[in-house]
């Protein structure tokens, strides 16, 4: 029976992306935990030796992702988005542990994983693990990550609560609020009201109208860029069309790989300046790129308008008193 259930889990973990949740078994009958997960020795980004199950999963709620440090496409975006989710969890993040499993342990030393974590500003409740190639292969297999090539792995993440023996599956590209809510649902102690509040949206009367390109920006760009908030993993996009032509920006959004392969000097300069992540292929159409550029330009205009208003306010004369004279205090 236990073997059949374990095989069922493995098959489901290889299946589709969205939200499988297994019924909660009784503790005595649970096929998961140390009955399923290896307790193999692994190493963290601080080069601490850990037992995979005992130290990373036992009695914990865990968010699992799969990365490798030389990836310049999907992995940095997944990590950046999960870092945003961790921020949105607020104080709840103290009760949730993130585990990123290297799928290239031959290359990913603890030192490289440490540098990778630092590049994303990760400081708490997040362990990046590496170890022996065969040990990591077994761990990946048990977790349903069966890609045969590094480039085959995707954006799937796993959610697990060891206390309830529940597994769930999600995408790092889900709406960040919904993903944070799904993570919270793994803890039965958190009230349904808090979960429902995370899903709630403003009423149609209160909600500001969404600009074209806004959702696309939040989904594909906001994890690595800001508009006026300074450089992040990638450059600040404020005023980007004053530094580059709109055609160049559009072409880069639609087919960055071709421009990189063609040796575009600006693309190569960006790759050298921001080595942690290179622009992934977003599979955008020209219309998508137009909407994105329009949204960035709108946010740039709004930010500059705010600065102008603040500057104008600072230049206004001090109001005179009712009799036309300013009061002087001695």
Could you characterize the architecture of this molecule?
- The chain has 330 residues and is of the alpha/beta class.
- It has 13 helices and seven strands.
- It has helices at residues 2-14, 52-56, 74-89, 110-119, 133-142, 176-184, 192-199, 214-220, 240-243, 246-254, 256-261, 265-273, 286-315, and strands at residues 41-43, 49-51, 61-67, 96-102, 126-129, 156-161, 166-171.
- Helix 3 links the parallel strand 3 (61-67) and strand 4.
- The longest helix is centred in the C-terminal third of the chain and has 30 residues, at 286-315.
- 29% of the residues are buried.
- Mean pLDDT is 79; it is low at 1-29, 191-207 and 324-330.
List keywords for this structure.
7 strands; 330 residues; disordered N terminus; two-stranded antiparallel ribbon; disordered C terminus; globular; alpha/beta
């Amino acid at each position: 029976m236990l073997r059949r259930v374990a095989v069922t889990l493995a098959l489901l973990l290889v299946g589709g992306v969205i939200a499988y949740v297994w019924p909660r078994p009784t503790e005595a009958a649970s096929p998961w935990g140390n009955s399923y997960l290896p307790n193999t020795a692994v190493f963290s980004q601080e080069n601490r030796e850990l037992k995979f199950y005992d130290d990373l999963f036992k009695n914990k709620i865990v968010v699992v992702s799969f990365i490798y440090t030389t990836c310049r496409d999907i992995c940095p975006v997944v990590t950046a988005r999960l870092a945003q989710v961790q921020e949105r969890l607020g104080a709840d993040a103290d009760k949730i542990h993130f585990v990123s499993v290297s799928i290239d342990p031959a290359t990913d030393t603890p030192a490289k994983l440490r540098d990778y974590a630092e590049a994303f500003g990760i400081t708490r409740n997040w362990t990046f693990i590496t170890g022996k190639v065969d040990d990591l292969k077994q761990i990946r297999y048990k977790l349903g990550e069966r890609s045969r090539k590094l480039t085959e792995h995707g954006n799937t993440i796993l959610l697990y609560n060891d206390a309830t023996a529940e597994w769930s599956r999600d995408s790092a590209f889900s709406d960040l609020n919904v993903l944070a809510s799904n993570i919270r649902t793994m803890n039965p102690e958190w009230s349904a009201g808090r979960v429902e509040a995370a899903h709630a949206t403003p009423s149609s009367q209160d909600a500001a109208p969404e600009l074209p390109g806004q959702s696309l920006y939040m989904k594909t760009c906001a994890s690595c860029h800001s508009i006026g908030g300074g450089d992040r993993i990638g450059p600040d996009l404020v005023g980007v069309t004053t530094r580059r032509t709109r055609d160049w920006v559009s072409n880069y959004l639609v087919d960055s790989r071709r421009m990189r392969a063609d040796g575009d000097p600006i693309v190569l300069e960006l790759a050298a300046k921001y080595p942690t992540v290179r622009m992934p292929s977003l599979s955008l159409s020209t219309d998508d790129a137009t909407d994105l550029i329009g949204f960035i330009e709108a946010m740039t205009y709004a930010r500059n308008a705010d600065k102008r208003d603040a500057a104008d306010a600072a230049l206004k004369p001090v109001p005179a008193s009712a009799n036309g004279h300013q009061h002087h205090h001695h």
